[in-house]
Amino acid sequence: AHNALDIALTSYSQANYTAPNWTTLTGFSTNGDTAIDAAGTTGDVTSAQTVAIDGMVSVTPLEVNRTKIEGTDPNGNGLATIDATTPEVVIASSIQPVIISVETSNATLDLTDLVNLKTGTGILPQMTITAGSASVEIPDGTTVTAPGWNGIMSAPTAGTTSGTAPAGFSVGDTVIEIGSPDHTLNFSNAVKITLTGVTGTVGYRPTGSTVWQTIVTQCNSAIDHSNISSGECYFHDSGNTVIWTYHFTSFGGFNSIVYGCMDSIATNYNLSATSQTGVTCTYPTVNGSILFFS
Q1: DSSP, residue by residue, the chain
Q2: What are the φ/ψ torsions at residue 284 (nearest 5 degrees)?
Q3: CB of 268 within 8 A of CB of 278?
Q4: In what order do the strands lie in the sheet with 269-274?
Q5: 51, 35 in Cβ contact below 8 A?
Q6: CA 43 from centroid of its chain's CA atoms
Q7: Are the C-beta atoms of 181 and 207 separated by less than 8 Å?
Q8: How far apart are CA 215 and CA 206, in angstroms?
């Protein structure tokens, strides 16, 4: 019976399981050996062997398109790369800090081991996620809350510029989507988002909305967001823009729309008018009527 459990255990590969699930799987084998030693009858031995083998079978492995935290850096941070082959990473520990590199679109983080799916609430480890023109830093011990959420978090990926921009702006080239397409993820601590190369006005589009909102509050500094306790603030830092936010959705930079004065021909006298941005334009007129051409 012990030999049967050994053979069964060697048929599994630790690389195919998250750390907690691998511990559970090997635990069935260990407990089975203990039960076999304590068995008083042949039937008890058979029963102990069956329970152990069935238990190992019941442990969920990683799917073929998922990865897990593989190895650590010198500081003890867990490391993972999300790419086209494995576009989802499983985060199974709320204690170990993790650093995740995203190299594909539609990348996701499976946080179901950390989140109570009945309440949509869970405690997250310190996480640093880098993806193209954006990076995200979640502080250690941050509680995430999103009732009805399935525990799958979208990594920062290039987002769409669709939607209505604030007056006087258009949505710029740098837009990221992060969190959930169906639910707003709210955090107990402010989360840091850095938009690389963005130096102007920034904003966000709430989940489920088509209207962009401008972030108007400036943080005290790139690392000091103590002037907000909810919502979000921004700070321009060395050619980038840092956003501290208590929620995840779509974030991006805005381009200012410049309204200039129209070209015209003067044949009589000038009359002043005002453009949409409040700039005074002087237009030539003919018999009191402004004359334009294009």
Answers
A1: -HHHHHHHHHTS-GGGS-HHHHHHHHHHHHHHHHHHHH--SHHHHHHHHHHHHHHHHHSPPPPTTEEE---B-TT--EEEEE-SS--EEE---SSS-EEEEE-STT-EEE-TTTEETTTTEEEE--EEEEETTEEEEE-TTEEEE-TT--SEEEEEEE----SBPPTTEEEEEEEEEEE-SSS-EEEEEEEEEEETT--S-EEEE-TT-SB-EE--PBPSSSS--TT-SSSEEEEEETTEEEEEEEEESEEEEEEEPP-PPPP---SSEEEEEE-TTS-EEEEEEETTEE----
A2: -70, 150
A3: no
A4: 269-274, 280-286, 289-290
A5: yes
A6: 52
A7: yes
A8: 12
Q: pLDDT tens for residues 167-215? A: 989 999 999 999 998 899 999 999 999 999 999 999 999 988 999 999 9
| The two structure tokens encoding residue 236 | 């321009």
Contact 264, 284 (CB under 8 A): yes
What are the tokens at 142? 């941050």
pLDDT band (50, 70, 90) for residue 228? very high
Q: Which of 10-14, 78-82, 287-291 has the lowest mean pLDDT?
A: 287-291
**pTM listed for this prediction:** 0.70
Burial class (CB in 10 A: 0-12, 13-18, 19+), 35: middle
Integer Cα distance of 247 and 250 in angstroms:
10
For residue 61, give the nearest of 8, 27, 13, 115 by alpha carbon.
13
Nearest CA to 110 out of 151, 81, 146 is that of: 151
